[in-house]
Amino acid sequence: MANSRELVECIASITGRPLASVTGHMRYLREAEPSLVTTGGRGIAAPRMTSKDAASLLCAVYGSPSVQDSASTVLALKALPSLRQGIRTPRLTSDRERPPLFTLEVESSHSVIDGLAAAILIFAREKDFLRHIAPPARRDEETGLYARFSVQYPQFYATLTIGVHGHFRESWVYGRRQKLKSRQICECDEDALREIAACLRMQ
């Protein structure tokens, strides 16, 4: 499992943000009362990071106007109401749908941090799911897991979608989107979540 330094380096690589900036985000999350990420010793005694730590750090980087806003940003995002947009699966027959290979196993009482952490854990088990996915029928047909995650500020709003091409998708929205003249949107896809999952598996 990755320590905080390794997770910071991973998130900096994924987002293209300076390492010093992401380090600052992690520091503010760690120093919040109560702490918003796992804390502990240093060096070989440093705590192992979890998928929720990764989700919190990614949300802080994506949703904070400045590094100093990291903790307040994560708290604001965690407070957003959650709404599942549904699980869509293709029909096998006129009256029967293909069962999903997995779900995020989160509910409306869970926050965007919980949902994103669950998505990261799905990618940690990606090889298990791929065994049950048929190869594409056509050469240009996509297959495998995909994901989309976005955060909007200064009016906080987030979306999360995860699925399997040709099988199903599960979508969630957090907060209410409003029409603003000025807004910032940051997003990532399955490659980023896959890289985070690989980082957390580091020995």
What does this structure look like?
The structure is a single chain. With 203 residues, the protein is of the alpha+beta class. The protein has one domain (4-200). Helices cover 37% and strands 18% of the residues. It has helices at residues 4-15, 19-31, 51-63, 70-78, 112-124, 126-130, 190-200; strands spanning 82-88, 145-153, 157-164, 168-174, 184-189. A hairpin with a 3-residue loop joins strand 2 and strand 3 (157-164).
DSSP strand (E) fraction?
A: 15-25%
Low-confidence parts: none
Distance between the termini: 5 Å
Outline? globular
What order do the strands of the largest sheet run in, or round the barrel if closed? 1-4-3-2-5
Helix content: 25-40%
The succession of helices and strands, N to C, reads HHHHEHHEEEEH
**C-alpha Rg (nearest Å):** 18 Å
Count of DSSP-assigned helices: 7
Strand-pairing-aware structural class? alpha+beta
